[in-house]
Amino acid sequence: MQLVQQVATAGAKEQISRCIDAAQLGCINLLDTLATYIADIRSAPVITEIHQHIIQSYIQAQNSIEQLMSFIQSNFGIYASSFNYNFCSIHPLTLNQLRLRYLTLKHKLQSLCADTNLYNLMTKPADDFFNATTLNTYNYSGFMYFKEYISRLEKILSLRKSSEIITPRIMECLLLVNYNKYAFINYIFNSLRQEVDKTFSPLEKISAIKLLLRRCIIMPTAILIVIK
Prior knowledge:
Number of strands: 0
Largest sheet: none
Radius of gyration: 22 Å
Order of helices and strands: HHHHHHHHH
Shape: elongated
Distance between the termini: 39 Å
């Protein structure tokens, strides 16, 4: 493979990064182009057998490209610079595979998360993202973000004890992935206010505020993405 040869002969990490970024972006653009071709054919007034064969060929090409992207993520992801994620820490998968994992996770969370507001906050952006039919240069960063996001939520459920309330764990997870959604920030401060209101004396309230802020302000910057 030409990419492997380019990486092997690269003289510096910056050169490797340029090769990986170019290969990644090329794959993303090809997926988007093929998706456009498929949509154009399917929108034709009459779909003939030849059209069906062409669509199947395009879908097979998409599958091959997705396999190539998985290979790049698994073997060279640490050199990627266009998308600031540790690809190798997350098992490579396609958009459809991640969508299925999310739907399974969402169903479980719906029965476990008693806080409706928090449930809606943590699922609405993912719902909006997974309406996408294919990956492109505009949504690929979101794809990698939700890979990390879903993996963390899955881990919370796998480690959960039978009687454990998962709301605090979910809030911690959202903070860890820099879930910078304004509605979530408001939710945090409303939660803080409710906790503080449970106390009585001014000194107790000050102590409670300090404790709760210490718990919430630790926001890592490993994943820099703003969900608007």
